[in-house]
Amino acid sequence: MNDIYADKSKTLWERWQNNAKRNPDRDAIVHWVAGEEPFRWTYKNLTETAKKFSVRIAEAGVKPGDVCAIIIRHNSFFYPLYLGISRAAALPAVLAFPNPRLHPDKFRQGLEGMAQRSGLDYILTEKELEPMIRPLVEKPGSTIKAVFFPLEWDVTSEIDPKKDAEIEQISKSVKETEPMLLQHSSGTTGLQKPVVLSHRAILNHVTNLGEAFKLTENDKVATWLPLYHDFGLIACFHIPLSCGITTVQIDPFQWVLAPILLLEVISKEKATVTCLPNFAYNVLAEKIDDEELEGISLESLRLTVNAAEPIRHDSHEKFAERFKKYGLNPLALSGMYGMAEVTLGLTLTEPGKPISELQVDRNELSHGVMKPADKNSIVRVCVSSGKPIGGCEARIVDEHRKDVPDGLVGEVAVKSVSMFDGYRNYPEKTAEVVENGWYYSGDYGFKWKDEFYIIGRKKDIIIVAGKNIYPEDIEDVVNQVQDVDAGRVIAFGEEDPNMGTEQISVVAETKLTTEEDKKRIRLDILKAGMSIDMNIHKVYLVPPRWLIKSSSGKPSRKANKERLTEGTDPQVWSR
């Protein structure tokens, strides 16, 4: 077995401390801010500072088992704070810092809903948010006990050795089966489902997904993924930190403004691994000028993992084609499928090998059958998400939760040694999706030659006259329309009472403003739908940055549909 998995620690804190003892001067986390010298946390400095935070946390009244919600922007002290919460046997829960465009009342309502359902005990945030959050603490009946500003705390001076020893004893008494993390599933509101993960679940995943990634002590991870999302927190924080390898953390907001940042980091730091949701491949391929790429080398990159949304053939093709002259090995591209409920990953395509793809008949797929395309077919390219990783099992089942044959579309059911302990304070929700140790994901896909192909979410499917339409298919073709902002499109179903069925609606962001231009782009969108035998019923054109995103950075179909049905936004142009 690879030496980085030889550690048999029972808790995350024990694992981090052991890594610090083995390699005290190795970089644990390189905190990257554009235009500044990177801040480098060694394993020794990181754990020593985490100890100081743990004492401050205990002195503030936080008890073992309390949930500490962290709402902090990209900051070098986030990492030891997170570790310090865990050492104090409290549960960290990383939440998104509010977008400046989000109304304070909306943010408060979301946070209050989350606090009431998840049972948030403390908010650890920045001073700037005090006017927004303080009313929640003072509100009668609030579950939130206090709000703290840990970036204001002194963690440079020495700590009380007696208090430090007490906390060390508390950390040693924690059992591997006890909760370590409250991970909120992807969403746009405070009603996200809170996933409880134990130390054992996360450490099992460190080994199983780390081995699937083929990580060694020579690897280095580069990431811009936000740490409030499971893809960023588990794949690009917990796994490398527990394996004793280096992570370079880039500010997500800076990456959005300047995507070249990730490539600069890979090139300068000689990073070997990165993780990206599908839309990021398009952004990197299309939003960077050639002049920015001067001196960039991606030769060190051996693995780039696509996950968190359906994997699209065109995105991989664009990315590989754009960067092959900068040393990118196309075989570095890999696909993963998973969910927070199994800590993160369930299936993965084998690193260093071509990803399997199937050209299938789109109409047959809409009727639940994977049939290879022929010359008369409207083609959909289905991209494999690979085979189950170690410690995981997966099945495709029908509406009665019975297995279906390979090649038939059904719901993905999963079982894992890294399974969540349930949704915190949501026993009824847990009971809905977990049965006899199997978690029923709500995702649709099929199995073929031992590989899993994920094609959409059950709740997002549009049913037109009995035919299942996957919104991803429509979004793919509309994204190709000239003057549509690529990646800023959603498709959803709207009830048509006259027809007694759903009809396809599309929302697309565009910079165009004149009536004539809007009519032209609407016609182009309708034609794009017809090209894949889809009749788009209604087109909504909206200005750039209009679409509401989920916490994973994807435009949310549900939230945007609800916003449109209010029918009060003057910025929306529809026909």
Question: What's the topology here?
Answer:
Layout lengths: L11 H11 L4 E6 L6 E4 H17 L7 E5 L6 H10 L3 E4 L9 H16 L2 E4 L4 H9 L7 E3 L12 H13 L5 E6 L9 E5 H14 L7 E4 L6 H14 L2 E5 L1 H6 L2 H10 L3 E4 L1 H9 L16 E4 L6 H11 L9 E6 L6 E4 L8 E5 H5 L12 E5 L3 E2 L3 E6 L12 E7 L10 H7 E2 L2 E11 L2 E7 L4 E3 L2 E3 L1 H8 L5 E13 L4 E10 L4 H16 L5 E7 L14 H10 L6 E2 L1
Parallel strand pairs: 1-10, 3-4, 3-5, 5-6, 9-10, 9-11, 11-12, 12-13, 26-27
Antiparallel strand pairs: 1-2, 7-8, 13-14, 14-17, 15-16, 18-19, 19-21, 20-21, 21-22, 23-24, 25-26, 27-28
Helix pairs in contact: 1-2, 2-3, 7-8, 11-12
Characterize the structure shown:
The chain has 575 residues and is α/β, with parallel strands linked by helices. The protein has three domains: 3-251, 3-Layer(aba) Sandwich (Rossmann fold), CATH 3.40.50; 354-458, Luciferase, domain 3 (Roll); 461-574, GMP Synthetase, Chain A, domain 3, CATH 3.30.300. It is built from 17 helices and 28 strands. A nine-stranded mixed beta sheet has the order 2-1-10-9-11-12-13-14-17, with helices on both faces. Strands 18, 19, 20, 21 and 22 form a five-stranded antiparallel beta sheet that branches. Strand 13 and strand 14 form a beta hairpin. Helix 2 (43-59) packs across helix 3, helix 7 (199-212) packs across helix 8 and helix 11 packs parallel to helix 12 (313-323). The protein is globular and about 75 Å long. The termini are far apart. The model has no long low-confidence stretch (mean pLDDT 92).
